[in-house]
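Dear colleague,

Thank you for sharing your sequence with our group. We've completed the structure prediction you requested, and as agreed, I am returning the results in plain text so they can be pasted directly into your records. Please verify that the sequence below matches your submission; if there's any discrepancy, let me know and we will rerun it promptly.
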Amino acid sequence: MADGIRWLPLESNPDVMTKFLASLGVASEYSLVDIIGFDDELLAFVPQPVLAVILLFPVSQADSTEPGDESLREKCYFVKQTIQNACGTIALLHSVANNVDKLKFSENSAIKKYLDDAASLSSEEKGKLLETNTDICTNHETSAQEGQTEAPELSQDIDFHFVAFVERGGRLYQLDGRKKGPIDHGVSSPATILADAAKVCKEFMARNEQCIQFTSVALVKQ
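Please find the predicted structure tokens below.
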């Protein structure tokens, strides 16, 4: 991704993320919650139904070399990341966009309007449209300054990255705006998306077993 527009990074904080989505018009019955571990007994604490899983990981150490598949863009709502440090918002957009049929929105929802306006555009054009979306940009900036840690300088390089996992058409897809397209991780379902995504998250962690800087949240209906 070439240098250009740069945003402050979001913190992997479910309260901040939930407030962010609410500010964009996602109904209050949907929220982000922490996934405290990927073993079955810990996954049992996550409320159901789970609509999406978002993972934050140290990109330099745990990212896969899988480039993504452009042909799978037709299977999912996929946004190409054209903004530096916007991966948290892109992951939230992917989580919401691929669950529009399961979510509820306010009458003047900024995120729903963006998704509708961008629906017929290419993945790259979706990313470019996000660059000019004042509502999402402004609310992102506010949310980026509301975490538990002090927001970094705008020019600071960030070594962490967000990706989203969603279930579409009985398959689990990893959505990463830096890739060429979605990554297909095999069979999944609305009932098993959490466990299926957890298996892939474990693979990320296995690439650097000495690192503990992984966090994950789930988009759920409560």
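Summary note from our side: The mean pLDDT is 90.

Kind regards,
the structure core
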